[in-house]
Amino acid sequence: MVLQAIRYSRGSLQILDQLKLPHEEIYRDIRTAQDAWDAIHSMQVRGAPAIAIVAALSIAACIARCNKNGADSALLGPDMTGADLIYHNLRFLLTSRPTAVNLADAVKKLEKVVRQAQQQAGSTDYSINEAYIQAAEQMLVDDVRDNENIGIHGADWILRRTDTAFPAGKVSVLTHCNTGSLATAGYGTALGIIRSLHSRNYLKRAYYTETRPYNQGSRLTGYELMHDNIPSQMITDSMAAALLGLKRDAENISCIIVGADRVAANGDTANKIGTYALAVLAKWHNVKFIVAAPRTTIDLNTASGDDIIIEERKSLEVTTMRGPAVQRAEDGSLSIGDSVHEIAIAADQYGAWNPAFDVTCHTLIDAIVTEKGVLEKDESGEFYFGKLFAD
Ligand SMILES: CSC[C@@H](O)[C@@H](O)C(=O)COP(=O)(O)O
Asked: What's the pTM value of the predicted model, to 2 decimals?
């Protein structure tokens, strides 16, 4: 069964609560823009493309119910209708998390759709709503298709450009954070490449970091890889250098593949905290370092990584951990409880710095894989995005 993190049908939106995974699979109704804002801000849903799509669909689901029943759409701004109501809610959702550009990109595109619908002769609230709903629904479809193409391009590139002289010509790769079905509309970006390698029988093993402090790796990537029976092994973030340093063929890492929250115009890439450290390690160990992202993550209006706003989250997310209680029986076997609790792993009064993302300089990146193909640096060592946006 395909893992479905976003359940959408016209008028209805549900998300799989990622704070409960992998221990509990709970779907939450998203009935309002406020619900979507809360889910994004609290990271019940996370991952750059998924954030954008849930925000867009939350408004679509509300106004679809409104178009059908003529009832209150349950959006913020009860004294507004049609275009104004949509603009207002899009702007509100934009404030939910700052670093990933996909949300801002979606808002810009959806505002354009609404403006064009307003300009149509005889436009009504109903016709504006319909135009919005169709555009938001199309984003869901497009993201899955784009990720499948990222998977194909990325796998092709890895098989061409990295040393595949491992048992049966297979490669092992390392990834960070969660970039799969849970972080996107489906299939995934960096994890999409891993899926593509696996489906062609070229994947020996996917290593993934636990990704402290939010543990997107251990909680979410592990869950997805197990779900799809992809051979995999978790490491803590601090084990990456040791893994790359291993000289055993069977463990040899061909490349590190990560996703992105925002790629600046020069290729500098903001992604989950810890990405930068992996890129430095890759350079030292002469291992390819690849960023996988749809074009919606490339922000040509941001000149370089220096201009990217990095979200800082609460210290508490570093000093606590979530999970079910573990009980050890007399024979030493473990049983894991059902419900998720939060436990302190440090005294919170010490405080902790908690940037959610870091920026990897483009000089450390070998290739950026998009749905349109793989971009490498030119002779002067610069990424040139022009041709990716030719259409
Ligand atoms: C396809 S997801 C790419 C990125 O969004 C992902 O690597 C990441 O950094 C997610 O961060 P998160 O804080 O979990 O939203």
From this structure: 0.94
